């Protein structure tokens, strides 16, 4: 039995990211993060892109603290600039300085979870926490993202900034959904996943869709208190498991505007946004649900691309950043696409294995075993100008597929926090 006040109680969870095929853009309530339209996303395989988060509580913790990728984050909150700005996030990951975890969005999530916390007892460890006691226990959160870090990228800071840009929109929900999910497990919250999604939503809107695997709809809801603005699963990842997702992380200059402020500006200045939300999206959402149900790739691609009426062998979509997300209907098409992509965008440093991350087996499926194979690729038939190549424009590609929602990680060895010190392992 742990001595009075000396125990540390922990839980670890892993949460995926999602890519919207019908986008969330614009809020009707900034504080509660209520959207102006429904949105639909696909959840990516957590083996390729996910956040693992360990949360801990102890009577000996004097304040809430958070660490990212093992390093102390000094200014982290779910709505503060660091997570919105690629360069500041970069420094957040690389510099070990610490300030309080005080962001309004983070505190909203924590408050909502604490409100729903239940009595907890672990007789073996001699830990007994009553519902009302959770209010007085501070949390330590350590989170690790499995996407390539600066070291894994082995390229310039610009390259890493691109990576961060790719995930800057997503890192909120990586961390946020992982933290909300894991805190809820730790605090014995009995709410269903829909309710958890409405808490995750208050950290970052798009985050709420990561609470489920497969195809997920975030229903905008009608109520002022946001209680009906929740995620629902349209179909699980097994429903349409031949889809292949390829993300091109590009090397161009990074955008400076976050989604949060970008969408605020759109709501305030664009009459088209109202039209989109009220007229365009509702019918698109219905059609998308039908396309997903019927595994109708032509309609899925058409709706995802939305503005294009060309032949859709592949669907593509962009978030607020410049990185392209391409969805192929099956592996065969994905290999054809990959060969074209690698023809046009060969790796600058000739290292094929770090140029494609995630599901690397797509390379051998495409018959690409070495850089010689890439260099020997024939020019795609549609190419008009000879030798039209853009070496260095793409930092790297990620190949993924549909995946599951968040999961508890039971193995003690995978916990990021030391169960005795309550601090991240290795810090
Ligand atoms: C472009 O969820 O990052 O990815 O709710 O203000 O945190 P906040 O915004 P955020 O918005 C990202 C929107 C998007 C499209 C989408 O995922 O639907």
UniProtKB/TrEMBL annotation:
GO terms for molecular function: ATP binding; diphosphomevalonate decarboxylase activity. Keywords: ATP-binding, Lipid biosynthesis, Lipid metabolism, Lyase, Nucleotide-binding, Steroid biosynthesis, Steroid metabolism, Sterol biosynthesis, Sterol metabolism. One of its GO terms (biological process) is isopentenyl diphosphate biosynthetic process, mevalonate pathway. Residues 16-74, 102-231 form the Diphosphomevalonate decarboxylase-like N-terminal domain. InterPro entries: GHMP_kinase_C_sf (IPR036554), Mev_decarb (IPR005935), MVD-like_N (IPR053859), Mvd1_C (IPR041431), Ribosomal_Su5_D2-typ_SF (IPR020568), Ribsml_uS5_D2-typ_fold_subgr (IPR014721). Residues 245-314 form the Mvd1 C-terminal domain. It comes from the Eukaryota. GO terms for cellular component: cytosol. It holds the Pfam family MDD_C. PANTHER family: DIPHOSPHOMEVALONATE DECARBOXYLASE (PTHR10977:SF3). This is Diphosphomevalonate decarboxylase.
